[in-house]
Specification:
Keywords: Signal. This is RND family efflux transporter MFP subunit. One of its GO terms (cellular component) is efflux pump complex. The protein has four domains: 32 residues; 84 residues, conserved putative lor/sdh protein from methanococcus maripaludis s2 fold; 155 residues, Elongation Factor Tu (Ef-tu), domain 3; 101 residues. The chain contains five helices and 24 strands. The longest helix is centred in the N-terminal third of the chain and has 48 residues. The strands form six sheets. A six-stranded antiparallel beta barrel has the order 3-12-15-14-13-16. The protein is elongated and about 130 Å long. By secondary structure, it is an alpha+beta fold. It is 32% helix and 32% strand.
């Protein structure tokens, strides 16, 4: 069959219009936008929400601060007396033990004082011994006399009263003398003299010891500038003993970091070159107030260094928190609802949505720390929360 030109044009136009219409319908069906926050695979109905249990999540590695290992503990060596050096027994760099003699001074006068004090002690001791012997003898005699008088008094019962009265008076007198002896007053003077002599001897010996300059602690001797014949004065510093067995680690902390270390007794320290080799350092001091210049808080640690692990003048890492402390209550950031400067989350309490104000902390990936407002195992609404009001009835769906 042959069509006219007009009919061919009409059929072509209808076919083209139909194809365009079908294409538009298909295009519209494929390009419907997904509302923000909606699940691409499923759409929540009114009042339907999804929840997850509130749990702890890591906010990262333990927080740390770089700190300085101070020079070894330095203790001054001081002269305890004034005098002239007669001998130097230890040189700079020598290892010393507490009490080791470093140098000695002329102590002739002090030695004579000790000898004199020792003689005084011997004399006082002899006098005290003699006094005690005399008291013992007199006591024995008095007891014998009292016994005799008591016998005479019994025998004189039938005698006249004057005789009895005389015996009684004598008996009371001797008993009083015995009581005085037993009280120790008769040897008190000798005892005091002896104790005074002992004290003078102790003081004389202490003075003599002061003429020997000794090490105040174990360590390495440095800074000594003494020669035979040189003079020193009492209280002057004549050297230093460095003790490497115990080192001090110092750091300056921000207010936040100071709060992390406060109320702890120990912190972990290590060299950045080997994080596996750690030591526990005791907290000696953590400032309550910041330094007025830099607004930082001073931290001082003490740690045993008997094995020579730490080198004065180096730097170490101080761990202010542990791995466990970095595991904190955290929620998905998308579950947080913001209203101006306030932040909230919704918790499913049975079938009721509870609006809970929260205080936010650190952010790590998809989770944000919750400092206040939530606790673990609560049912946090993670989908549909932006359409809720406090007290709304909700249905939890999977």
């Amino acid at each position: 069959m042959v069509y006219s030109t007009g009919k061919k044009k009409t059929v072509g136009w209808i076919r083209t219009s139909t194809l365009l219409l079908l294409g538009a319908v298909m295009l519209a069906g494929c390009s419907m936008p997904t509302p923000p926050g909606a699940e691409p695979t499923a759409t929540l109905g009114t009042g339907e929400v999804k929840v997850e249990k509130v749990a702890k999540h890591s906010m990262g590695a333990p927080r740390e601060q770089i700190a300085d290992v101070s020079s070894s503990i330095e203790i001054s060596v001081q002269a305890q007396a004034s005098g002239t050096i007669t001998g130097v027994l230890k040189a700079n760099g020598a290892s010393v033990k507490k009490g080791d003699v470093i140098a000695v001074m002329d102590s002739e006068i002090a030695a004579k004082s000790v000898s004199s004090a020792e003689a005084s002690v011997r004399s006082a001791e002899k006098s005290l011994s003699s006094a005690k012997s005399s008291v013992a003898s007199s006591r024995q005699q008095l007891k014998a006399t009292i016994g005799s008088l008591e016998t005479q008094l019994k025998d004189a019962i039938r005698d006249d009263s004057d005789t009895q009265d005389t015996l009684k008076a004598n008996l009371e007198s001797y008993k009083q003398q015995l009581a005085d002896l037993d009280s120790g007053t008769s040897v008190a003077g000798s005892q005091a003299q002896y104790e005074s002599a002992l004290l003078q001897l102790e003081q004389a010996k202490s003075t003599l010891e002061g003429y020997s300059i000794t090490a105040p602690t174990d360590g390495v001797l440095t800074g000594v500038d003494l020669t035979k014949g040189s003079a020193v004065t009492q209280g002057s510093q004549v050297g230093v003993v460095q003790n490497n067995g115990q080192v001090t680690i110092k750091a300056k902390l921000s207010e936040e970091y100071a709060g992390l270390a406060r109320n702890k007794k120990e912190l972990t320290v290590y060299y950045a070159s080997d994080a596996s080799a750690t030591r526990q350092a005791s907290i000696l001091y953590l400032a309550d107030q910041p330094n007025t210049t830099n607004r930082l808080y001073d931290l001082e640690l003490s740690v045993d260094n008997s094995d020579g692990f730490f080198t004065p003048g180096t730097r170490v890492q101080v761990q202010l928190t542990t791995v466990e402390e970095e595991n904190v209550v955290a929620v998905p950031t998308l579950s947080i609802v913001r209203d101006g400067s306030d932040t909230f989350v919704f918790v499913s309490n049975g079938s009721v949505a509870e609006k809970r104000q929260v205080k936010l902390g650190r952010l790590n990936g998809a989770y944000q720390e919750i400092l206040e407002g939530l606790k673990t195992d609560e049912s946090l609404i993670t989908s549909g929360q932006h359409l809720l009001k406090d007290g709304d009835t909700v249905t939890v769906v999977s």
